[in-house]
Amino acid sequence: MATSCDMLPEDVVYHILLWLPVVSLLRFKSVCKAWCSLIESFDFITQHLHLSKSRDNNKVIAWAPEMLDFQGGPLFTFRFLLFSGNNFQMSESLDLPHRFDNPLERRGNLVSCNGVICLVHRYDDSTIKDDVSLWNPATKQFRILPKSTVPIPEWSGLVNFHYGFGFDKITNDYKVVRIIHDDVLLDDGEQQSRVRVEVYSLNMDSWRVLDVVLPIDIHIVSDPRTPFRDGIYCWSGWDSFMENGLEVTRNSILSFDFAKEVFGTMPVPDVYSYVRCDLKLALLRENIACFEWVFNPPKTDNWHCKIWVLNEYGVKESWTKLYTVVLESLAFPRFLSMNGMIVWMKNDELTQSLSFRVCNTITHEIMNLTYEVFSSHALFANYKESLVSINSACCAAARVRDCCG
Q1: DSSP track, 296-352
Q2: pLDDT for 294-351, tens place per residue?
Q3: Where are the domains of the chain?
Q4: Where is the F-box domain positioned along the sequence (predicted)?
Q5: Which of 83-87, 171-175, 211-215, 359-363 has the lowest mean pLDDT?
Q6: Distance of alpha carbon 75 from its chain centroid, rounded?
Q7: CA nearest 286: which of 56, 132, 9?
């Protein structure tokens, strides 16, 4: 008797399954071995991801330090909220499938790439190294990455850590890049920057030091909403140099190519090149964008945000100002979504409370986010569900050896 797996041609089954959401595909893996093998195959996962990207089903994932679950003892786990990208309605609440033994700082990083979330967990205890984890909310896979075997430099002063996460399409590898940076005051009074770069490879499941020199002596702005696009990760920042005996400060964008493992720079719009301002990066409809938060203007009711988009990657002349979004007084922009929804935090001086508002940059419609009150440290990231596995190639090889043995 023919089974349900044999009733349709393989290519028809393949294309039907491609259109299904991840939650259905995970359930259908138990239908038969053939379907399980197909759904877990690299080609199917890649095609499913590509098809998902072509559809306008972007979502936003958010986290705030208040969203803790203390049940079961003094352990810490985290709850995330998932919003639809078009109307920003909350669609799901997600718990991180891990509990931490030590309290974490309110600051952190939340970066998304191909449905995988990279989280940086900074501890209140400065003697504990950061934990970096990867999490696929759709498949429920979670793993804390191994600690780097290279000791943190014993540099004087404050040492800053800046992270990026992305996909190397040449080797089909997910990588985390970490920039370790500090400024040291020399005996002669001069200030010198020191930088070390490390890269984690999911395929190898290990960290290594990258022998590179940053293209400019850049000071990275600690902004967890920096974007990843087409194999390139970008941080906003600024660098300073001497010109005619004077120190000049210039805004710039530092980029990292995950395939070539090299750093580069991109200019910001001319109007911001030599102006100290609060400039943040975002992804807007797949293009690099930046937005300037104008606060404390001459008129207190004229707080606003200017949004620019880079129409052609790396071409300075292609920067175009798209929108000027009028904000409320004491409004602090936190995030610009892929679909053009800007999120800001409203500080109510009268009630001493915080709330979050969302504005559609095209229609200018404003809505309140109806969920638990977030803190000023809330993090947001664009998100699209996928079947991408965060099991490393080393782990996969070990499983094969165990099965064969």
Answers
A1: S-SSTT--EEEEEEESSTT-GGGEEEEEEEE--TTEEEEEE-TTSEEEEEEEETTTT
A2: 666 555 557 788 899 999 888 889 999 998 888 777 778 888 888 888 888 877 766 6
A3: 1-55, 280-374
A4: 2-49
A5: 83-87
A6: 25
A7: 56
